[in-house]
Amino acid sequence: xxDLIPLVVNGGSILVFELSHVKRLRDLGIVGILSGTLxxxxxxxxxxxxxxxxxxxxxxxxxxxxxxxxxxxxxxNEQVLNISSLKEETVELQGGVExxxxxxxYSQVDDEQLAKICRDAEISVDALMVxxxxxxxxxxxxxxxxxxxxxxxxxxxxPGLRFGGDFVAYPGDPLKFHSHLxxxxxxxxxxxxxxxxxxxxxxxxxxxxxxxxxGESSTQxxxxxxxxSLHCFSIEWAGFG
Amino acid sequence: MLKRRGKNFNQxxxxxxxxxxxxxxxxxxxxxxxxxxxxxxxxxxxxxYIYSHLPPREELTKVISDEDGLTFSVADDQGSxxxxxxxxxxxxxxxxxxxxxxxxxxxxxxxxxxxxxxxEDVTAVRRGERKAFKGLRQEAQKLEQLGxxxxxxxxxQARYKSLVDQMDxxxxxxxxxxxxxxxxDESVATDKGEPExxxxxxxxxxxxxxxxxxxxxPVSELRExxxxxxxxxxxxxxxxxEALQLQKTEVFFLLFALDAVKVFKNDSxxxxxxxxxxxxxxxxxxxxxFLLDYVVYHHFRSLGYCARSGLKFGxxxxxxxxxPPMLHAEYAVLVVRDGDCGWTDWPDFMALARxxxxxxxxxxxxxxxxxxxEEFDEILLSELDRCALSRLFLxxxxxxxxxKRWSPSRTRD
Amino acid sequence: MSIAQQTxxxxxxxxxxxxxxxxxxxxSAESTPxxxxxxxxxxxxxxxxxxxxxxxxxxxxxxxxxxxxSMSEIEQFFRAIESLAPRPKRVTLALVNDDxxxxxxxxxxxxxxxRQN
Lengths: 241, 413, 117
Prior knowledge:
- Chain B: Its EC number is 4.6.1.16.
- The complex is a heterotrimer of chains A (241), B (413) and C (117).
- Chain A has helices spanning 19-28, 56-64, 73-84, 111-121, 125-133, 138-152, 194-206, and strands at residues 5-10, 13-16, 33-36, 49-54, 68-72, 156-159, 167-170, 181-186, 191-193, 210-216, 230-237.
- Chain A is of the alpha+beta class.
- Chain A folds into two domains: 5-129, tRNA intron endonuclease, N-terminal domain (MutS, DNA mismatch repair protein, domain I, 3-Layer(aba) Sandwich); 137-235, Trna Endonuclease, Chain: A, domain 1.
- Chain A has a five-stranded mixed β-sheet. In chain A, strands 6-7-8-10-11 form a five-stranded mixed β-sheet.
- In chain A, α2 (56-64) crosses α6.
- The longest helix of chain A is centred in the middle third of the chain and has 15 residues, at 138-152.
- Chain B folds into four domains: 21-51, no CATH class; 57-94 and 242-280, tRNA intron endonuclease, N-terminal domain (MutS, DNA mismatch repair protein, domain I, 3-Layer(aba) Sandwich); 101-237, no CATH class; 282-413, Trna Endonuclease, Chain: A, domain 1, CATH 3.40.1350.10.
- Helices cover 46% and strands 13% of the residues of chain B.
- Chain B has helices at 8-12, 22-26, 37-52, 77-85, 101-108, 119-149, 154-180, 196-211, 224-229, 248-257, 272-280, 289-302, 346-358, 373-381, 386-394, 408-412; strands at 61-65, 72-74, 91-92, 230-231, 236-237, 244-246, 261-265, 268-269, 306-309, 317-320, 331-337, 362-369, 397-403.
- The longest helix of chain B is centred in the N-terminal third of the chain and has 31 residues, at 119-149.
- Chain B is globular and about 90 Å long.
- Mean pLDDT of chain B is 80; it is low at 182-195 and 209-220.
- The mean pLDDT of chain C is 86.
- Chain C has a single domain (3-108), classed as Trna Endonuclease, Chain: A, domain 1 (3-Layer(aba) Sandwich), CATH 3.40.1350.
- Chain C is an alpha+beta fold and 117 residues long.
- In chain C, a hairpin with a 5-residue loop joins β5 (90-96) and β6.
- The N and C termini of chain C lie far apart (35 Å).
- At the A-C interface, β9, α7, β10 and β11 of A face β4, α2, β5 and β6 of C.
- β11 of chain A pairs antiparallel with β6 of chain C.
């Protein structure tokens, strides 16, 4: 299609409301997390529905690849509503009439209008980072770099808090694969605790994953475009001893 | 080396600490009843007898500290057994918990006829089975992949079916073994909780290794390293390479709290003060890791728990109600210094909580409040005898908090 | 016993490795502040299915008491080995605890392809 997917920023969350967009994103390798209540089963949160919630790293990758655009939620919604809200209509009811059928006056937003709205409501990735984290810190840059590094190698990445890491990387669609990598991103010269290594190693073995340390390589820092170049070590329990 | 849990079991482990009580040595206080005046006399006699003698003193176990102060170990077998059996202190340097290296090696190299099963052998059998299972699985998967490309011929189909049957049998066997040994501690072997199978499998694997040659235990071609161990004239091991190694907190507890050991470095015995400084290391501050760990160790020991190293689970120590051979540990303890800098990152903490939950233990966070640097320095200026050290440790305050993951959706259902 | 000695004993007499040697490592300018030892030897059987038979394994031993490590330290270990032999695809990290437990971890150079457990 070639059109940019609008990534709606509401407060601190980046949301995608259209199902077609969610499908496109999945094909592109962005999984996200469904975060809305399912109308058919509202009193549980094991199964959730639209909107899809993206992390800042996924959104940043999409913007850099010219696949999506961050739009300010308020302005975006206002303008979409201007076009596609139900029009008021007065209908006179005659006696004995039980129901009235009216024309569908809800008009879809077409692609051109959407593109115009998106350009109008656009916000930049850096501005959003400042809003979320206070300032653009090196750690966020590093996490973005790590995300891009693995995404460009066709890994699907999801949040890694459940496994004690920064991301979890799958070699393909998460639903198809069960063994993957837990990524922990370290800044240059940042140290990690060896006891943590024991815990993470044990956890990784128990859930059939490998632990990967991702860090900047001190020798090859590309000063020109400030992009850190990355180096990885994978750690797993040796199985003996 | 553990045999079947016999009537000796409770007898062997009856002392929770290496301390001898007067009543053990001089006899129990006789039963007295108010109505019977004669019994009062026998009570008075017994009490007089006890008080007129010095409190019983076992010979102090010798603990040797190496040059660098890195290790504290007990070399003699009797001392090791005493410390292990009365309180589960220390760990064999070449075993999983109780020092059993000598007996295992004698069995492996065929120097003895005794048939004993050690926990290490059980682990080895389990790992061997897992390896075999993985081998079967790999072959089965190769056949599956091949089957997707073209139709399998008869031989291949039969082979595939037999592989699947073997894997199912192994899985079923493993499940029954697991359910029967659910209560047993992982690091300890055959007891009444463990099924007959494991015992038999270990015996078989050991017998096989004595008879055949396989890559793990080539007997007809002894490793050079093994050959040097054996004394050719008597056909026994020259020396027991294993010692019981004690952690710093354990050594300090045995010396400071129980006075049950004597620590030697370079053949001269260390005073309490010297041991204290050796364990403290270079950083003389109240939140020194050794001090925090020791305070918590002492705290739980005094409550009757057996506290051992928590390395296996990524925490600081694990607590047993009685000891490793009896039941699995119930609690995993993480020592945290109260204040800003003691806390770990959330992702790391979640990982630990998940590991601990996975092995069905309860995570206990112990927050330790330290004295100020001034108070600490003041005590260190004086001579550090037992009194001064007690004053120092009394300044620390310990609070326990249990962390348990709560899943609201699961609890509702 | 030094770290090297403890690890050597554990490898030879507990894990049944053969031909284990301790290597002297030159202290480079960027030395790690933590004590470590470098050993190599032959395990009793292949550590990984895809290895060649008789592959000589490299072991780095660290004290667990020295709680920290970093990516640059791991890189230094690989470089130390590079000065003696071609850079291996993986190194075994031995963590020596003060209760004489030694746990072993593989440190692979790069992100490994996840495998079945």
